[in-house]
Amino acid sequence: MEKTISAKRLLLYLLIIGILFLYLFPLFWQLSTSLKESDEVFSGYNLIPKKVTWKNYRIAWSQFNVKRYLLNTILVSSIIMLGTLICCSMAGFAFGQLQFPGRDFLFFLYLGTMMVPGAVTLIPSYYIILRLNMANTFAGLILPFFFGSAFGTFLLRQFYMTLPKDLFEAATIDGAGYFQIWLKVMFPLSKPAVATLGVMTLVQHWNSLLWPLVITQSPALKVLAVGLSDFRLFRNIQWNSLMAAVMIAILPMLLILFFAQKYFVKGIQFSGINR
Fold this sequence. Notes:
The protein is mostly helical. It is 72% helix and 0% strand. It is built from 13 helices and no strands.
């Protein structure tokens, strides 16, 4: 029996290692290419460079304007994440804890917007931003996403529904208003769910390509996804420098996911699935 269990566990480990290899191999290949000389990039299939060089990162950082793209991406994605956390948290608190006429109808109507593909709203959103004279500005990049999403509201609403009603009633008896209850009682308790939504929002807009590509033309406003896509415009693409730029782009997200994974798992665990 023990031998059978050990064999099954060994097969499970081998399967997990195989899946991890399929997912992580492109990342290892990118890292390897970013450390190679130009003449070694297509000279073979070796994963370990014959001669490690860091000049590709210097070229990507300075000559290909990755520094500007990185700063723009940090600015845009951070402001969107902050607005999403505040708006979705307040909306989730209202839908999860407060009682008012038409609450459930409004919530499910709002939730129904998740069924609308983003491509359907792309042209109307662009037209609105154009009429507001916000095209090719940071405001045009940020405003359509600043007020959160239906998914974010749903996630935090489900979390707030798991909190005891006694907390809300006790704060009300003490004379606290709705905003004070949300800010001083509910929001501090929702850190796991807020961290989960924050990481998901940050990753989504860090990798966003379609909307920034449509709304911006100025090189000073380009984000990483758009800036990296411009590499295709060069007649002779420097693949090692391109891979270095890609590694610079994904490194912040890897660090954030690594340090926030505890809150991320906890937020998913307590997201209200028992209600």
